[in-house]
Amino acid sequence: xxxxxxxxxxxxxxxxxxxxxxxxxxxxxxxxxxxxxxxxxxxxxxxxxxxxxxxxxxxxxxxxxxxxxxxxxxxxxxxxxxxxxxxxxxxxxxxxxxxxxxxxxxxxxxxxxxxxxxxxxxxxxxxxxxxxxxxxxxxxxxxxxxxxxxxxxxxxxxxxxxxxxxxxxxxxxxxxxxxxxxxxxxxxxxxxxxxxxxxxxxxxxxxxxxxxxxxxxxxxxxxxxxxxxxxxxxxxxxxxxxxxxxxxxxxxxxxxxxxxxxxxxxxxxxxxxxxxxxxxxxxxxxxxxxxxxxxxxxxxxxxxxxxxxxxxxxxxxxxxxxxxxxxxxxxxxxxxxxxxxxxxxxxxxxxxxxxxxxxxxxxxxxxxxxxxxxxxxxxxxxxxxxxxxxxxxxxxxxxxxxxxxxxxxxxxxxxxxxxxxxxxxxxxxxxxxxxxxxxxxxxx
Length: 444
Prior knowledge:
Elements: E1 6-7, E2 31-32, E3 40-41, E4 54-55, E5 58-59, H1 80-89, H2 97-100, H3 105-108, H4 118-122, H5 125-131, H6 142-151, H7 170-173, H8 175-185, E6 215-224, H9 248-252, H10 263-267, E7 279-283, E8 288-292, E9 298-305, H11 309-329, E10 336-337, E11 341-342, E12 355-361, H12 371-377, E13 380-383, E14 396-401, H13 409-431
Antiparallel strand pairs: 1-7, 2-3, 4-5, 6-9, 6-12, 7-8, 8-9, 10-11, 12-14, 13-14
């Protein structure tokens, strides 16, 4: 792993050769650190049970909770209030879909009249009726898919997707919903299109000289999912929690994700039982991080202060390759297919899953009437430095690529590098009281 050994969440020293340093209860996800710069696996990786996958002689789906008892009698004997109380008693995942199916589709169709997300634009009463009785092999239903978009009509800063996948099969079982959402979110990406991948940092042009007077920090992240396991919105509680090293120190240093407060994550169930089954690895320099079981199985992050995006991306590619090699050595692989690229929980992250971003000071351009249009033409997006749910403060923005799917990793980072250089040039012009009309780019 880049720049030294990885350390466990509390920041204590690296493990000795052969020593188990960190792992979930029951022997899953143990790693051994053999020498600086490398990782060697312990027992087979295991994500939260509930998928029915047999491993180490145990059927980890066998102890899933039984389906709740459906009230007896005809449909007319089950009142709306009774059904509502029954729903509230259920676990997060819609194992109570049997109860919901006792009501007509038109009664169960959610009110989306005031919603502004991609799911609400696509889902119709007819499509809901067609898909609502379907489920993936692990039991993820249409109502599971759309719940976060139902509970969150819109977002003040971005156009949200409004749905999630619970497993790899979700994108196929509910393709009549997902395909048009993906096409809408990813700029016309068709069901027949194929994704491309390029994780060779040598193909990136420039990027090592973004002006640090404007660029405060640079970051590249992606997600990865392990084939054969449910995604976080559908993972069972089980016994696969990490060892109880307190994460408080890492949270204070902003390395470990705190308990999610975003309603987009809460409504999809990704904050359940926090911090069980969550963890983090980071290198000695704290410039390479791996989050476990936040929005995705793995969230891989490379970051550092200043404007050397080339160095950040090189470390990112190297570390990601070593992580994939580790999993392959234990006969595990990432979810991937030629059409969607890397499979992740949110359809917005399909393809590369990559977000390359900078925290950049743009106090003048950030107030300019053409700022939003310039970003759109550069295929970039902005948010507050505190994340998707925050506004910019003091003229400092988090600017990153808007696309994930249909472009390679190198192409996306190149868009950010080239776009940030132009934004800095515009900011300098405005500092001098000069116009920027001639710098406004054509649509990429």
